[in-house]
Structure formats: structure tokens, C-alpha cells
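Anyone else keep sequences and C-alpha cells together like this?

Example one:
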Amino acid sequence: MHNKMKLKLILSLIAAAGIVTACSQQKGVGRQAAQVGGPVFLDETRSIDERVEDALARMTTEEKVAILHAQSKFSSAGVPRLGIPEIWTSDGPHGIRPEVLWDKWSQAGWTNDSCTAFPALTALAATWNTEMSALYGKSIGEEARYRKKDVLLGPGVNICRTPLNGRSFEYMGEDPYLSGRMVVPYVQGVQSNGVAACVKHFALNSQEHNRFTTNVTVDDRTLYEIYLPAFKAAVTEGKAWAIMGAYNLYKNQWCCQNQYTLNDILKGEWGFDGVVISDWGGVHDTDQAVNNGLDMEFGTFTNGLSWSASNAYANYYLSGPYLKGLREGKYSTDVLDNKARRVLKLMFRTVMDKNRPYGSFVSPEHIAAARKIGAESIVLLKNDGGILPIKNAKKILVVGENAVKMMTVGGGSSSLKVKNEVSPLEGIQERFADAEVVYERGYVGDIGGQYNGVTTGQDLSESRSAEKLIADAVAAAKDADYVIFIGGLNKSEHQDAEGEDRESYELPYSQDNVIEALAAANPKLVVVNVSGNAVAMPWVNKVPAIVQDWYLGSEAGHSLADVLSGDVTPSGKLPFTIGATLADYPIQSEIQYPGIPRKETVKMGIQDKIIYDETYTEGIFVGYRWFEHSSIKPTFPFGYGLSYTTFEYGEPKTSGSIDKGLTVTVPVKNTGSVAGAEIVQVYVSAPESSVERPVKELKGFGKIFLESGKSGEVQVTLDKAAISYFDAQKHDWVAEKGNYRILVGASSEDIRKTVDFKY
């Protein structure tokens, strides 16, 4: 017996030596990862699938389970015995989150984790430029890689169903086609750095209010036509390596453990080969987590959703309880192997890829990218009399808290610690250094300056009354050449922020009163609205110039000043519709939002929670589809945006067929006096459809830059998907025979040309 034990020990040492040798070779420069006869999983000449299968065969059940759940706030375990490193994730979609403590949300106190803050994704969508999306993804991916993050928790592509959604600023607007086109290059850009993009929140996450406990009911046609296309594009075209489940329920199953969305659609219909990652605290049951498509569990708290501890990870649903069920024969080892196989593939795509680039952090290139994307996203909504760009100004009055308030801190998971943030006031002062730039606050909004331990360091306290603030602003406005009011929303609770929705469609802090007073005091008033959502504008007819600005990150002030000065001709277009009032939107009944509470409660950890049932009764009529369907005139339509120049559209020509690709060629001429870019939008109408269809739907777009007097062409190719609707009974897309119309325009409302075709 003693000799047998010795032999066993010698053999195990020999095996271990082989692995150690191979692992040491993996770290060597310019060498192959393994010698002939070494472990296949370390041999980089073999395919990822071969390496995954070899690693999987070497793992114990305990090791397989260990890689399926968190080991800290933002990391999961590797396989130390095999030399496979742990995985590190990071928020967020607009910049790399500062480091937190191992088990807490509190700041770790690092001094080298101040990032570049990129514009919010609503702003990116407003560029309508896939090249900007690619630049964005590549840049933020480089920052994630430099910080040794393997999974970037973003981008978000949930549809803006209601302007009250506190998290809409993290998404890409109201249209599934626009979101789908913009997400693909973002994902590809991130993953070019060997960092996984984790597209979120899958699916039907359209609000923050009761986000953990809302059960959504929606018909299959609406699901497939409105709420899934952007996710599908990210998976099937972008080849996303990770998807994050949503907090809400669908078909009475939480979306992080949902048979229909994860197994049937994502992994079944779309063939997704990546990992499904839970949102933090989104898992509530071991049986469903095991069987319904979840691969990696993060953020679970062992007593529900209120506290965590260092020993919590052993009690995760995919940890100790899963391992116990496997040992008892309750759960299939095939299902376990499928989960572990997916996680291993993620590892080989990221942390096990020794050839991935090193990345870069807060580089001049990233700052330039943030500025460029920001400027291109800004939407000129109104410019009566050509008041903009600012010219020959001797005195400029800037009014509004958002002119000075840091907008990178707050908002929830997107809260960032930035290396530098240029405020709108600073940007204006720098660009118009030859003018006298005066600042008046005008109103008091949020004077706080911290989130999860990240602080702005700003002192925004104010002793003047609301009346005095307005009076001082009006007095300063009377002799100014230009008055620039910079207000809107911020990232405080119940505004553009994670965790709660807006409580009102109107501007907060009585800003309307300030705008009205300034409009009466000076005819050269420019209102700059900083927000990630649509807002009411009751003063729209009293103000000559309106600019839709966004949360633009590190270079916010420079981007805005670039446009106000005319250094950059505005070319952004709205990614959502701006209605006059909240009553103009389709979400009007309690069953639609915020949902009807059930009488009985359900267990979430050790807590009893009330589930809210919500039905998307508006169906496919979301955003501009609703406004046109209901003949409601918006304040500003989807796709709208002015320029400092003008563009003339020529007659569109078509070639090819819808079966093989119908190419629409649109001549465009810059007929104005300055260079600029135009976004040509292509919509499709199905007037003879046997089922109810929207008046028109976006099916293509192209952005073209032209010097003054120059002409060019925009080409958009339509396929059969452009004329198809989803037939729920057939569970398939249907393209009906008949006549269709192509509508070419500068917005959903401003249609310049039409072309009829037959299928």
C-alpha cells in the first residue's frame, strides 16, 4: 500500500511538471505555448474548440462549478491547478469603472484608475455613424484591456419605450434598426482588444422602477420586431462573446434564468456560443439558473439583495447548492459541461490569449475620440435667424447649473472617476477667450457630488433664493450679445440614473421659469438641453435656438464649444422622438406602466417581494411608430436634426432585387456655404399589407460629408428583412407579395423622395 502511494505521488508530480512546463512556455516571448506532446489546451496552434475540450476533460466537477460564479464583486475564479487565470469584469458602457473593494461597492482607493469618460450611448446613437461606433468600441476596449479587464459590461441596447426610463441614456434610442446597426461595430471594436463585450440587458428591460419585480407580457410579434433585433445583431453579426440578462421577469421567469429568451431564442434560434452573465443580484433560484441558460452568476447576496460577505460566494445558486445537486444526481453533467465549455471559450478568447494587445489608458487618442464623437452627436433642433454659430461676440452670458456640474459622477453603474472633465462653461471660456464670458447659475438643482465613494469635489452650495437667481441672470442677460442657457437633466436620483425612473416629463428645478425669463430679456437666447432622454419644451416657440446636448464625458465642454462656434457643423440626429407632453406617448395606463401589483408575494432570497404585472399593450407602436400611427405631431421627430448648411436630395435610383439585395442610390448636394455632413434615412412602407404595419419603418441610413457646393451619393441596400413582419403563429418572418414604397428623408417626418417597388 505504501509503495502504491509512492507511485501515485510520483505520477502526479510528473503530470504536474508537464503542466508547469507548458504554463511557463505560455509566458515566454516568441515561443510556442507547448512542446510536442504537451497539453492541447495550451497549444495555440490548435483551435479554441480543441483547447476548450482538452481543458474541460482535465477539470473536476468542483473546478467546473467554481468558474460559473463570482469570487469577488467583479471577478470569477480560474483553474489554478491548470494555470488558467481568473476572469475580471468591469462596468461600464461609457468608461472603465474605478476599482472597488473585493467584497464591497466602496472604493478601493487606487490612484491610477481615473479613466477617459466617453459620451453616453444615447449620444453615440445620435451620430448615426457606424464609424464613430467602431472608434468608440476600439477606444473603450483599449482602456478596458489596459486595466486588465476581460469583460466589459456593455453596451446596452434596450429600447426607449418611455422617456421616463431612468437608464435610457445608457441605450441607443427608440428604434431597433438604428440600435442594431450601431451596436455591431461597437462590439467588434471592443473585442478586437481581446476583451469581451457583454451586451445588456436581455431582454424587455424598459424601466428602472420596480426593475427586480416587473413581469412583462408582450406578444411575440412585438418581441421579435421591436425588442430583440439589436440583441440579435450584436450576436449574429457582431459575434458578441457575452450577454447580460435583465432584472425583470418575462413569462414569470427572471430574465437571468429564462428558458424562452436564453435557451430557446439566444442559444437556440441565434446559435449564441458565448456566455450568459447575470446582472448583479439577478439570480433567484438554483433549478432555473441551472436549467434555463445562465452560465455565470454575479452579485448574488445570500440574504436576498441587501448585504454581502466574503463567504457569500459559496452560497451562490450556481455554487454550493449546484454542487450539492450534482453530487446527488439532481442535475445533468451535460448541462454543467455546456456551461463550463462556454466559460472556458470566453477565457481562451480573452485572458488566455497571450497575443491580445496591451491596450492604452487616457491616451491623447482616446481624448480626441471622445471629443469627436461628442461633437458629432450634438443635435441642432432650432436655429431661427441663423443665430448659431456664435460670431463676433463681445459678451457671452452662460446660465445654468449644467454648465458647471460634473456629469461623470452618478447615474449608477456608469458613474466614473475621470482623469479630467471639461465643463461646458470651461469649453466656452476657452473657445471664446477674446470675449467676456459671464456666468450666472439661474437655478439650483443637485448640489451633491458623490456616488459609491466617487466624488466630484465641487461645492455647488448656493445662498440666493430662486427669485434672486433668476433676477441676477436676467440682469446680466440684458446687455449680452449671446445668452446660452445650459440646463436639462442630470444623473441624480429620479432623473437620468440607474435604479429609479423620472417622476416627471418636465424639466426639474423650475428651469422653465428661467428660460422664459431669459427669452423675454434677450432675443439671442440659445437653450442647450443636457439629457439622455426627451423632455418637455413648453417654451419651444419663444426660443430662437435649441441644442440637444448629451452626457459627453471627459470632453463635454470642448465638444459643445466646437459646435456652438461653428468649428464643427452639427450633424447629429435624434435617436428618439421628443413629444410635447407625456400624454403624447403610448404608455398611459397602469397595466402598461408601472404595472399592476399582485396580491401574493414571492421569495427573493430571504425577502418577500411583490411582483408587478405589466403588459406592452401598445405592441409594435413604439416611438415614431406610435406618433405616426396616432397622428400626433411631436415637438421634434425621430431622426431630426439641423445643420449650419443645407442639403439637396436628388432622385433616388434602385438596382437589383429585394431577394438578392435592392440598392438605393441617393444623390446629395451641399447647397450651403460651409462644409457639413448629412444623414440620409431610408424608410419602408407596406401600404398593401394584410396585417397592421407602422406607417413607415427605418430600414437603412448613410452619413455623407460634403464640402460646400460638392455632391456625392449615399447607397443603402435593402433585403427581404426590410419588408418582412414576424408572424407569431408561424413563428417566422413573412415577406408578403405586393407593392412597397421606399421613403428617403432627413427625418421620419421630413421625407424628400419616394420610390415604389414590387415584390
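And example two:
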Amino acid sequence: MKDKIFGVLQRVGRSFMLPIAILPVAGLLLGLGSSFTNTTTIETYGLQWLLGDKTILHALLVIMNAVGSAIFDNLPLIFAVGVAIGMAKKEKEVSALSAVIAYFVMNVSINAMLKISGKILADGSIAKDVLDGTITSVCGIQSLQMGVFGGIIVGLGVAALHNRFYKIELPNALSFFGGTRFVPIISTVAYLFVGILMYFIWPTVQNGIYALGGVVTGTGYFGTLLFGIIKRALIPFGLHHVFYMPFWQTAVGGTMEVAGHMVEGGQNIFFAQLADSANIAHFSADATRYFSGEFIFMIFGLPGAALAMYKCAKPEKKKQAGSLLLSATLACMFTGITEPLEFSFLFVAPALFAVQVVLEGSAYMIAHILNIAVGLTFSGGLLDFFLFGILQGNAKTSWLLVIPVGIVYFLLYYFIFSFLIKKFDFKTPGREDDDTETKLYTKADVNERKAAKDVKNFDEKAGSVADELSQTISRGLGGKANISDVDCCATRLRITVIDPEKVNDVLLKSTGASGVVHKGQGVQIIYGPRVTVIKSDLEDYLASVTEEHFEDDAVENNTAGADEVKNENAASATDSKTEDSSTASDKAQEAADTKEPTSTVIISSPMTGIAADLSTAPDEAFAGKMMGDGAVVTPEEGVVVAPEDGTVLFVFDTKHALGFTTDSGIGMIIHVGIDTVKLEGKGFDVQVEAGCHVNKGDVLMKLDLDYLKANAPSVTTPVICTELKDNQKIRLITDGPIKAGEPLYAVDTYEK
């Protein structure tokens, strides 16, 4: 159950990446547009000639602000669609359409309930007894303010309905509405009632949030701390606006006489003082306590968290993670838009968000204690920090104190996040589940084409071999009903099953798999580069068979598989029948082993060093021959040469491994060291490119052995054949000292 829940949470986290990707750009547009179109800012600095109304820059900034606002205003809908797409197993476009429909249906239902109850009047206005901010316009529909949380409710619910019903078969009279057409229908019906339910549930949540506001103002520094914690904790629910706006714009945030006028609300007080700055010795920190602390964690703290996530990313994913985190960090620092960074870890690692809430809440209190009074228009980024902190002078704002406090916060975020991510293996950007070694094949286009051809020609007796192979795989996984999700990486079919006990390894290996790996409810079946074709065929097969027919097959097969296992276990006991059978089988195998091979291909060592059997490799996958068979060489010289005449198929991005095929047709991988992918290419000097034809002994790469020995777990190098046929066997020739170019092992081919 734990593994299943964790797997679902990971999928949910990944589904957020699609809508999150647009947030940094939207944040930059909105931040720039809102900061430089603010009337007070323009008038204070006398920039009417450059940024004033009817200037070209003003028009451009207004458009930028509008575009950024459009994205943030509709973020719930964007999340509804993004989550639905991310969580749907197939026919994702149907789930996207259904999510849009469900989102509108839910909000229209809420709107109808608000009208029926009299909270929205006949003329469209909101009743006076309704709390400000609890009702808002959602895509032109007056509805409850549910924020991003409303979109997530829709996305997850629609995805669940989609995965359950997108293949439903209805009676003949209603067959037109079956399958994918049924998903938007059932989503509409379901979310009509969800909307009604939200009408009763959500106001209670909103009222509780608003009531907490009264506690903040009367409790001094502690109240500021409480304000900061509550505000940041409400970010995932999209309710932080409901909470903080009264403090910014109403008497809830305090009152003060400025220039002879009574001003209400923290933000209003600051801008009133800014307009009268000539008569103000120091801006009121009691007014700015509701936002000055944001500069500490937005400019310094969260970038520290981003650096921690980048440093903790897997080496092969650092480039991708770095791109995402850098854009999100820039949006946070310059404009104060924190959602891109927060949402990158919020749902996959809630513990990190809990830490963040405490640290960010403390930042508000620290700013209040230190009398920091930096104002803002939109959010606590560098733009507002420069305009309303630095330009106003330290005497009025105490902005200089933000820097040392910010540096401390940067370090706190970095070290705390780094520790927790590594300690609990949180799947932050760049740490998602993936088998690094399998990526060795991602550039082997030649191998993939060959694999596709092999699958196609594997057996043509029954007319559709892919179906037969898929059927056997499905049976080995315990039946269609036991298969929860189908995916693959470059060499492994990755399956999530409901009951791992129903998986039949014997049967799965009979499909040509070189190994089966179990991880909780996850099953990895190693096929090599042809796995993408196998995955597609399996998905098509599962979609085409009926539940009843397939389950019958599965039951029959599992029974057979169980019998096989029983026979194998009994063979180790004293059962005479099984012993006889086993003895006969052994004799047959011995007879086969005595046969002379019909052909032999000698593979020479690509390195000078110590040769040994592959089973001695200090890595489970290599030692278990899951990637192929061969040998290992522990190098004593830093040169890797071509083992035979052949072609370089690919060079891995991190330079630690390359694919090679001999002119005789033997596909190989030369993987220098263990876990050397983490070195990101350091210590490797590759001399060839993919597609190059080389002769035996030509230099493929040069190694800095001292660096590799110091930074890698092992320099022992697997030299493996990845695509051996059933009638081919590896025979180790040299076990011990060996020079580059000397025979390492033989590939013997026998009669079938």
C-alpha cells in the first residue's frame, strides 16, 4: 500500500510540471508589467515622460501585465487540464477536454447554489453579508474562491474517471456513447454534484481563514510570525489572497494618519508615506510587517532551496532540472513569484514545504523586529526591493539589513533542503525514478531499428506475433486486472501491478527477457532496446482484449507457472520423478555443451589491465547479466581502444560509455567504471563520434585514471554483448592480466 501511494504521489507531482513550466514566464511578465505601470512609482520618480500614460513603453508594459495576469488568473483551470493530462494513462486529449468541461460545470453549480441561497443577487452583485474575497470571478463565472486547489480537485477526479471509463462498453442501443465519449459525460454528471458539495464545504474553510486574521493584529511580533506562517501555508490552496488582502487594504492591517489623512491598510499606509516621504524620517515597520519579510526569502531563501534541489539532482538530469529551476529562481528573485519553485517540491515532498512555511513565517517576524520597512506593489522581488527599498535610502527603509539576514536564510534553505532531500530521497526535480544505466541505449538508433525488425520477424506462424508476445507478458504479470500502469525506459518494461504475488517470473523470462526486477509494486522486465516496440504492442493488446477473456488466460497461465515453480523446488528435494526429469534435462544440456560451435567471434580487450568474469562486477545489474553477457577489465592504463573492427553506435552524453558493433555483427557496450555517469564527463576524453568506423586498436577514448579512481566507486569496466541470440554463448578466454588488443572472450554460436 505504501509503495502504491508513493507511486501515485510521484505521478501527481510529475503531472504538475506541465502547468508549472509556464509560471516563470508569466511571473516575469506580470512582475515587470505591474511594477512599472504603478502610478505612484511613475509619479514619485518623475518618469511620466518614459513610462507615463500613452507612451510606447507604458502600452507594452500594460500588455505584459495583462498577459501575465491572464495566466495567473486562470491558473486553476490550467492546473485542472495539466493534472488530468498527467494522470491519464491513455487518450490524454480526452481527459483534457473532460477537465475543462468538469471545471466549468463545478463552478456553474457553485454559482447556481450561491444565487439560490441569495449570496449572489439578481443583478449579479454580491450580498452585503458575504465576506470580501470569498466569491470571485472564475472564467467569467461568479464562484467560490478555491484557487489552484479547485483545479487540482477537478484534474485528479477527472483523471480517475477517465482511467476507469475510457474503454467502457455500453449496450448496443447506447454504444455510440461508449469508450472515450463516455468520459466527458460522466465527468459532467459527477462534477455537478461536486460543485453542490463544495458550496457547503468551502465557505467553512474560508470563514476559518478570515477569523484567524483577527488574531494576528493584536499579538505583536508573534502575530507577525503567525501571519507569515498562515499566509505561506495557504499558497497551495490559493487562499492566501483572501487572507492577506484585508491586512494590506483595510483597517485589519492597521490605521495611521499620514499627511493629515487617516489611511487604512498596511500597503496603503506605505504608499501614503512614500508620497509624503519628505516629511517621513522612517517608514512604518508596523505597516510593512505584512510584506517586508518577503524580500528575505524570495531574493535569498528560495534560491538557496533551488540550488539544493539542483545539487541533489541526478547527474544525467541536472541539465533539465537546472533549466527549470533557473527560470523559476529568476522569476522568484526578480518578481517575487514563488509558485514555480514552491510547486516544484510542494506535492512530491510536503515536508520541505513545512520547513519552508516556518522559515518564511520567521522572515516576516525578523523584518518586523529589525524595523525593516521596504514596500512593494506586487511581490517581494528585486524590482520592488530596488524601487521601494534601495532608492528610498537606508535611513527610511533599513534595506541594508535585508542582505545579512538574507545570506543566513540562503544558507539555511540550502543546507536544510539538501539534508532532507538526501535523507528521505525526496523526488524533487531531477531525482525522479529512472534507471541511469538504461540510458546507455537512448542513442542507439541502429539497434532500435534492428530490434523493431527482430520483433516483427520473430515468428510469423500465427499471423500476429506481437499479440502472442503481449499475451504471454500479460499472463506473466498476473492478468490484465493486475496491471495498473505500463511504461518503459530505454531497455526495461516498467510495470506497476496491483498484487506483486501474482507475477510469474518464469513466464516473463520465457518471453525473451534477460531479467526481472521487483521493487514493491513495480516490476521491471529487461528486454533491451526493443522494449519500446514491446511496450506499444502490450498497450494495444491490453486495450483490445476483454477483461473476462484475458483473466481466464491469466489464471490458466499462472497455474502453469506455479506448477513450474513447484517442480523446480521439488527438484532440490528427494522427489524421484522430478529427479529423473531433472537428470534427463541435465544430460541433454551436457550433450549440447559438448557440441562444437558452428562459428566463433573473438572479442579483444579494449584496455590493458586485469580481466575477470562478468559476475565479479561490483554492480548488481552487470553482475546479474541483466544488460548482457561479457567480461570486466580493471584498467591499468588510461586508453580505451576498439576491440575489433567495427562502428561506434553512440557515445553517452557523460562520455563514460559508448556503444559499439563489430563488423561481424556483435553489439557491445563498453562502460568505463561503475557509477561514473555521476562524474558528468570529467576524466574522459572521447576521440570518436557516433557513426565512425574504426579499426581494431584505434583509440576510442583517453582516461584520467587517477581522477577516476579518486572519484568513482570502481574503475572496473564491463565489456558486454547486449544482443546475444539464444544459440550464442560467451566463453571467457583471459582471466587475469591482459593487454589491449589481446583476446578477452569468445562469442560461440551453436546450431539451433
